[in-house]
Amino acid sequence: MREPAKCEGCGRDLAKGSTICNHCGWDQSTNLARPPRPSLLAQFASGGWRLVVYGLILLLPILGFMRLRTTGPGPDLKTTLRWMAFGDGGRAAELETIHRMHEIASAASRYSIRENEMPPFDGDWAKILAPAATARVRGWIPLVFFGADTHMAPASVRELYEVRSVDGWGRRYRLHARPMPNAENWVGDPQVVADLAEGLQATFFTRDEPDLGHGDWMRLVLVSAGGDGAFDTADDIRMISYIQVGYVFRLLYDPSEIQSKIERAYIIGRHYYRIEGSDYDLIDARLLAEFRLTSIH
Fold first, then answer.
1. What is the pTM of this model?
2. What digits encode the pLDDT tens for the residues 132-146?
3. Is residue 17 exposed (0-12), middle (13-18) or buried (19+ Cβ within 10 Å)?
4. Residues 6 or more apart whose Cβ sits within 8 Å of residue 64
């Protein structure tokens, strides 16, 4: 026996053959004229998937561009697309680390020349060295811009040319400064001999040796824990730098030579360094700075 029909309005039984409920007056024929609303799954299957696909097509280039601002372009299109999709594996943080290491040593060199003493590397040493940062000495960096006020420089430039106590991952460096006040003590020192044998440079393109026989020097070692955040592992980044403390004036120097040496040391922060634990160098770091400068930051 078939169950009696139910009213769609109040749920009571309808009289046999009736389409209008005697209790609430609901006309059941209106429900028959209105088709049931399809489920979300049915809507998606019937063509709603296109909205999702088209949305992703529009969104992916935007997300990729935002990622590219951080990673910078790769050496080829395949690498660039992989970095845009999955990240660069810490490349940008590594290059920032190298650049900041160099900036710390440069600022320490300028501080040593200006104050004629070794800068302190305990307490808030980054704040002490900050006034000797490259951006404050030379205005806007890169040098395609010029300005007397460092604060006028874009944020993307300032963040790479500031002295900070943290690396590109935001973690503090391990730092060791070794003063050598007597030039004669450098001769035959196993650590120095090994450093000179490995090679040092004062510019991006040359191999140089510091004149350790004149004046007082310090050996500065900066170590970043790298991407894994743990020291003494394979991905540590180290920078070894030799910095002259003060400058010894000798009467035999030609005045123009003294001026050029002092100006170069103060403005650029000349020091002799070697970077270990990275396939990149400061050229890469400066290219990254240029790329960030031209991006929307």
1. 0.69
2. 887 776 554 444 444
3. exposed
4. 84, 85
